[in-house]
Fold this protein.
Amino acid sequence: MGYSEKLRNIYKDQLTAIEEAGLFKKERFIHSTQQADIEVEYPSGSETKKAINICANNYLGLSSHPEVIKAAHEGLDSRGYGMSSVRFICGTQDIHRELEHKMTEFLGTEDTILFPSCMDANAGVFEAILTSDDVIISDRLVHASLVDGIRLAPAMHDTFKHSNMKHLEKKLQLHADKRIKLVVNDGVYSMDGDMAKVDELVELCEKYDAILLIDESHSSGFIGKTGRGTHEHFDQMGKVDIITTTFGKALGGASGGCVSGRKEIVEMCRQKARPYLFSNTMAPVIVAGALRVLDILSESTERRDKLEENSAYWRKGLTEAGFVLKDGNTPIVPVMLFNAKLAQDFSSDLFAEGIYAIGFFFPVVPNGQARIRTQISAGHDIDHLDKALAAFIKVGKKYDILGKTKEQIIETYGL
């Protein structure tokens, strides 16, 4: 019978249940480049509407930067559209090696290997370097791509309470007999916006002879004095054993990722990481754009500095307005609403005011932790932020959540 009506109804029922629970995710269609001001079609089939984008990973505003676009065009003309192959067969060009060298220098590591995405980097690294004699000890809030990569590894997996160094130390002591102990963290946690305690992590790993991996996807390019990441922010350059990161956020906003770190670990990824061995390499056009991004970052910290100023301004405005925020000092500023339906309704009302900001809810975040995750960009001007803040306040007043505590919001709307 194949895909019978009975089977079709199984999925229909599941989708209906997701929608009834207020957890259904609807996509918006952007009819412009990715920047502070965008044109959006929502709902599907409606006229496009101009909006201020306050929820993109475009931290440095480089996704539509004319110099990056120019470099991408030049890369397209000189190296073609795609490689039609994996790296070790015939998918490696000179510019791939050049980007790996530049990322090694930028991150302050020993070597770098490119992947089609950071999702692929995280999917490949654990299985490539670990065996059943090893253990992975990860922060309980690490990104989903790290979780998925860890699942593929033969090593034992344990966790520690979020950013709790005493709990981590207990776990390191518990697993002292393991051949390799790999501690895994995000540099900046994508949903909450807080930073890992990289200095304390390095100290513990040195004390207990462990390896440290940090995913810098939400920090590469703008955290630290010159944007190297959280390891620069905490003065730990050269001390983090493995860094995974992406070119799909601050570093151009297209796609691609890498594993950077100790040269032996990078070489193990070249030999054994399955996403590297069996997926087409990064397209030349993206490599060319990423190379220009690194040049722009090396020329000036102007964009990084503006982002820091914008982030502080935005957080201050939301705090003074009376919203419940997650603590942090990064461009990721979650406005906590706790209820999934409230987050979706709040997002829809913001869009009606010309502000594009998406509601996050289970399973993207834990149940009862629904929010509007706002993300600030160097592409925002103060005028953008003021308009967005006015809209947030207007909608906040509608739902009577300004100045209310977490408990009061939950009492009104539930979890």
